[in-house]
């Protein structure tokens, strides 16, 4: 989440990892109004289903990633 001109936004960025120091955001990414989150979540669930259906992603890999987030 970020704020711009007093308004909250969802900010999804690609991060770079320098040889030394902290990772930082790049210009690559998207910024969304939080009101669009339900549509984003629905689209991501549809994408996940399609990836599993076409065997491009394993269901266990998804569950393992979710377990890491705890």
Topology:
Layout: E1 2-4, E2 7-16, E3 24-32, H1 37-53, H2 59-69
Antiparallel strand pairs: 1-2, 2-3
Task: Report what the structure shows.
With 70 residues, the chain is α+β, with helices and mostly antiparallel strands. The protein folds into 2 domains: 1-32, no CATH class; 35-70, no CATH class. The chain is 40% helix and 31% strand. It has 2 helices and 3 strands; from the N terminus they run E-E-E-H-H. Strands 1-2-3 form a 3-stranded antiparallel beta sheet, with no helix packed on it. Strand 2 and strand 3 (24-32) form a beta hairpin. The protein is extended, with a radius of gyration of 16 Å. The relative contact order is 0.12. The mean pLDDT is 93.
Order of helices and strands: EEEHH
In percent terms, what proportion of residues is strand? Answer: 25-35%
The side-by-side strand order for the widest beta sheet comes to: 1-2-3
Distance between the termini: 20 Å
Uncertain segments? none
Compute the number of helices: 2
Helix content: 40-55%
Secondary-structure content class: alpha+beta
- Which quaternary structure do these chains form? single chain
Number of strands: 3
Give the overall pLDDT as a whole number.
Answer: 93
Largest sheet properties: 3 strands, antiparallel
Summarize the structure.
This protein is α+β, with helices and mostly antiparallel strands.
């Amino acid at each position: 989440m970020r704020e711009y001109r007093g308004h909250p936004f969802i900010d999804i960025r690609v991060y770079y990892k320098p040889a030394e120091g902290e990772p930082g955001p790049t210009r690559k990414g998207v910024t969304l109004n939080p009101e669009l989150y339900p549509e984003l979540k629905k689209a991501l669930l549809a994408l996940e289903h399609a990836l599993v259906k076409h065997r491009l992603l394993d269901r266990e890999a998804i569950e393992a990633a979710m377990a890491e987030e705890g």
